[in-house]
Write a structure and sequence with these properties.
alpha+beta, D-Maltodextrin-Binding Protein, domain 2
Length: 432
């Protein structure tokens, strides 16, 4: 069970009727306003379709008014956590993902979508998708797409360099070295092997955590006997941290100024040809092709190197706020079903590069090429179960602080690991 740190304070916020919704907005004729705190809307090129689908829904349901609040995914948690004490300011729906959901669920913000979706709707989702959105038997959010991590790479450059797809991280490093070159012969490196996200935020932290997972480092694990979470860094955590940070500090196979390279920058570096590999979700394909159409036919993907799965399924979607009225919840659920019905036109998904959450959506032609092969192989071979640890934001922060301290030369690898152990122990002491 997830820890309910605010159970008493949020008792009213979390209250949910055990009975079906008594009246729909459509039946009553009353005007219903729903607000959507949406990370999709702030993203290009697919954000436009969020507005388009909302407009179409309002045309078909004139009693419903939808307001889209565009906000980055990295800011949503902070904003919602601040709003908990003033629940009247909360939206009706908010964007979330599998790695953010446990913390937001623990704040009592996420209603159970099982209350609003019938078996037919639930049956449209692909294998494993609803499980990835479920916490404590609660369908915590409605899945729009899945974003397992894989490694994008330039097939043309691999072929030119005579490189095989790496299956281990040591092989990955050798490929990165071979693809780090002075392409114009001016004596300066201008093309790097790996587009690393080195910024100390959710995007960089999540990628580092996936790298650790792929090497068998669980970071934390749940102990059934004591019903507590335990640190689970493994005996080789120093070697793992050193390998990651050495790609910048020792081998120089990632672009310079690494602490300032966020997801958008890393994605752009890859799209413009400055880097040849990028650890990312399939959404980066949409960014790459939008910025550089000449990359069509030159991109492939492969599973994360390592013996273990380094990624959750990465479901993304919307949660319904528990505080919303019954009429708002009914309208919100209807809108979500309407949204995924557009997997038939595929505009949102194909423009973004995202993999649809529905079985039918995953059959479409655009995800059958080499560029999606690694993502689909990862799904086929199995992803990690959703990490139902409400302290995940603190865990990620501790991980980010570790690599950031080394990247900035504030700490050695040894010192960073020593601090990581202390930070994780303190986090778990406070959490448990």
């Amino acid at each position: 069970m997830l820890k309910k740190t605010m159970a008493v304070a949020l008792a009213g916020l979390m209250a949910v009727s055990a009975f079906p919704l008594q009246v729909s907005a459509e039946e009553s004729g009353d005007k219903v306003d729903i607000t959507i705190m949406c990370a999709y809307a702030s993203e290009d090129p697919h954000g436009q379709y969020v507005y388009e689908y909302a407009d179409k829904f309002m045309e078909e349901n004139p009693n419903v008014n939808i307001e889209i609040q565009a906000i980055s995914s990295n800011d949503i948690y902070t904003k919602l956590a601040a709003m908990v004490t003033s629940p009247d300011d909360l939206p009706t729906l908010f964007f979330t993902s599998a790695d953010q959901a446990p913390t937001l669920y623990d704040l009592g913000l996420m209603d159970d979508l099982n209350n609003y979706l019938d078996e037919e709707t639930l049956g449209t989702f692909a294998n494993g998708v609803t499980e990835a959105c479920t916490l404590d038997d609660t369908l915590a959010f409605y899945p729009i797409d899945v974003q397992p991590l894989a490694m994008l790479y330039r097939t043309d450059r691999f072929e030119e360099a005579g490189l095989d797809v790496p299956t281990t991280w040591d092989e990955f490093l050798e490929c990165s070295k071979a693809l780090t070159t002075d392409s114009d012969g001016d004596g300066e490196i201008d093309q790097w092997g790996f587009s690393m996200v080195g910024s100390n935020n959710s995007s960089g932290q999540s990628r580092f955590m996936s790298y650790l997972w792929s090497n068998g480092c669980n970071c934390v694990s749940y102990d059934e006997d004591s019903e507590t979470w335990k640190a689970d860094l493994g005996d080789n955590i120093l070697d793992l941290v050193s390998f990651w940070t050495d790609m910048n500090n020792e081998y120089g196979v990632v672009p310079t100024g690494i602490t300032e390279v966020d997801y958008a920058t890393a994605a752009n570096y890859f799209a413009m040809g400055y880097t040849s590999m990028f650890l990312t979700g399939p959404n980066a394909l949409g960014v790459a092709y939008a910025n550089n159409p000449e990359l069509k036919g030159k991109l492939g993907s492969f599973k994360l190197p390592g013996e273990y799965s380094g990624t959750m399924l990465g479901a993304e979607g919307y949660a319904i706020i528990t505080k919303s009225t019954d009429a708002q919840k009914a309208a919100a659920a209807k809108y979500l079903e309407f949204f995924t019905s557009h997997d038939k036109d595929m505009k949102f998904w194909e423009s973004s590069g995202k993999i649809p959450s529905t079985t039918e959506g995953q059959k479409v032609s655009y995800i059958t090429g080499d560029d999606y092969a690694g993502f689909l192989k990862q799904i086929e071979d199995g992803c990690r179960p959703t990490l139902a640890f409400a302290g995940i934001s603190g865990l990620k922060s501790a991980l980010g602080d570790a690599y950031a301290a080394v990247f900035s030369n504030e700490k050695t690898n040894d010192q960073a690991v020593e601090q990581l152990v202390k930070d994780l122990d303190q986090l778990l002491e406070d959490y448990n």
